[in-house]
Amino acid sequence: MAKPLPGRVVNQIRLLRFMANEMTQAELGERIGMTRQTVAAIEAGKYSPTLEAAFRIAQVFGKPLDEVFQWEG
Amino acid sequence: MAYREKTAWLTLACMIVAYVIYFSLVLSGQVGPRLLDIVWTFGIVVSIQAIVVIIGHIVLAVRGGAEGRARPDERDRAIARRGGSAGYYVLLVGTIMVGVVMPFSDPAPKIVNTALLAIVLAETVRHVLIVTSYRRGWHG
Q1: Which ipTM did the prediction report?
Q2: Which whole-number Å values give the CA distances from B7 to B3, B57, B84, in the listed order?
Q3: Between A7 and which of A39, A73, B65, B67 could a Cys-Cys bridge form, CB atoms 3.0 to 4.6 Å apart?
Q4: Domain ranges, residue B60
Q5: Is residue A35, in this structure, part of any structural domain at all?
Q6: Please, what sign has the CA dihedral across residues B75, B4, B125, B92?
Q7: Is residue A2 part of a domain?
Q8: How many domains does chain B have?
Q9: Taking an 8 Å Cβ-Cβ cutoff, which residues of chain A contact chain B?
Q10: What is the pLDDT along chain A (73 residues), one digit of tens a residue?
Q11: Cβ–Cβ of B74/A50 closer than 8 Å?
Q12: pLDDT tens for residues B59-112?
């Protein structure tokens, strides 16, 4: 099997929270069914959410998925 | 620190203290060779550990408020799966040792204590991986 290309998932959640009247991590977590710590871990790039959770986050901000999460190669 | 990370730390700490005491007693010869001696000593240690862990969980849940009552989310579940998977392999090796290898070469008390040690090691590895995953991040 070929070696996967190097890279990582980055996100704009902090910026989007700021633009959404400084929505707190706890508020976002409540709306997507996650703890504040998990939202913090996603924001810091310490945890890559499932596709379903990623879509939920994008839905909260009313943005398409690729405006919230990007692949940085 | 996440509520579930705190409970993992608590369980790990209590387990290390409890079983260091138990296996120190075994190695120093203060636990007799009969099954009843082993079960009695182990039972006391496990009971005290369980009481401390249960009280600790209650305290953490009360102090954690809504988070303490919340169900684990996908990250909590992914981290728990990772820990369980690693612990399983440790337990598998221990089971082979006590069930396949040791019956042909070692006395019963040693087999019993090695089985208990395998369980303790598997649980320790599980909890170490859980706290490590919470600390360093998890990209399952």
Answers
A1: 0.82
A2: 6, 6, 16
A3: A73
A4: 3-136
A5: yes
A6: negative
A7: no
A8: 1
A9: 33-38, 41, 44-50, 53
A10: 778 778 888 999 999 999 999 999 999 999 999 999 899 999 998 899 999 999 999 999 999 999 999 998 7
A11: yes
A12: 998 887 777 777 889 999 999 999 999 999 999 999 999 999 999 999 999 999
B70/A44 touch (CB, cutoff 8 Å), yes or no: no
pTM above 0.80, yes or no: yes
Write the CATH number for A57: 1.10.260.40
Q: Is residue A45 one of the residues assigned to a domain?
A: yes
Which residues of chain B approach chain A closer than 8 Å at the C-beta?
A: 1-3, 5, 67, 70, 73-76, 136-140
Residue A3 lies in a domain: no
pLDDT in tens, B107-138: 999 999 999 999 999 999 999 999 999 888 76
Burial B55-66 (b: 16+ CB within 10 A, else e): ebbeebeeebee
Query: pLDDT at position B33, please?
Result: 82
How many structural domains does chain A have? 1
Contact B138 A44 (CB under 8 A): no
Say yes or no for a CB contact (<8 Å) between B139 and A34.
no
Determine the Cα–Cα distance for residues A10 and A19; give it in Å rounded to an integer: 18
Closest CA to B60 of B4, B15, B123: B4
pLDDT over threshold 80, residue B30: yes
Q: Give the CA distances from residue B122 to residues A27, A53, B24, B88, B127, in Å, rounded to whole numbers and listed in that order.
A: 37, 31, 19, 7, 9
Could you tell me the residue range of the domain that residue A35 belongs to?
Answer: 8-65
Is B75 in contact with A44 (Cβ distance < 8 A)? no
